[in-house]
Amino acid sequence: MEGVNGKSVGHLFENISSFVRQCIFSVLNVGPVPSHIAFIMDGNRRYSKKQNLLDGDGHRAGFSALINMLKYCYELGVKYTTVYAFSIDNFKRRPGEVASLMKLMQEKIDELTQEESIVNRLGIRIYFQGNLKLLSDCVRSAAERAMVKTSGNSRAVLSICVAYTSTDEIVHAVQESCEEIWDDIRKREFVLIPTLLYGLLEQLG
Origin, by domain of life (predicted)? Predict the structure, then answer.
């Protein structure tokens, strides 16, 4: 009986919280709402240490907090959100911690693509940004599956940045630009050389 009463009270509290939140959001919507908000996932280890939690529990708590924030953003009408989740510098941590984070990341990515998840309920499309080649095979596969599974969603966009640094982004951008220029040069040569040969043959003829 106590369990039933506890569930009823919890359900009532959740409904009241939802109603209050909707009222607050209605007031906020009167003013300008940003189209894009970004979050930096930082402080999970400090939180875990402060709360005397087990390894990994701080990151799980951070993920739960992030899901709540994303839900509030989309309820407010924010169309684009970006999450800076795991930088290249994070790979410098202890190998055991990195492996644990990769496992947790794969688990949470798979959760995001479940049918009842916030992503599918709110029609959110997921993009992963960064050097995905640096991720473990399992995480990279999970990220690719998530992008494919949510490709039909169009109400909002969630960009998740992994394996990134500003330096790596600059280097990658320069490399892409150089490749485009080189491809353009080769195409020009392909057209230019036959033209020159034709002109030379005409002169000789």
Answer: Eukaryota
pLDDT value at 150 more than 90: yes
For residue 42, indicate whether it is catalytic: yes
Q: What is the pLDDT of residue 161?
A: 92
Give the whole-angstrom CA distance, residue 102 versus residue 132: 12
Retrieve residue 202's tokens.
């005409």
Choose, from 42, 55, 183, 184, the residue flagged as catalytic: 42
β-strand 80-87 against 124-129: which pairing, if any? unpaired
Sign (positive/negative) of CA torsion 188, 194, 196, 198? negative
Whole-model pTM: value is: 0.69
CATH 1.10.132.30 assigned to domain 33-164? The reply is no
Give yes or no for residue 86 having a pLDDT over 50. Answer: yes
Q: What is the Cα–Cα distance from 193 to 41, expressed in whole angstroms?
A: 54
Task: Count Cβ atoms below 10 Å from residue 116 Cβ, excluding itself.
Answer: 8
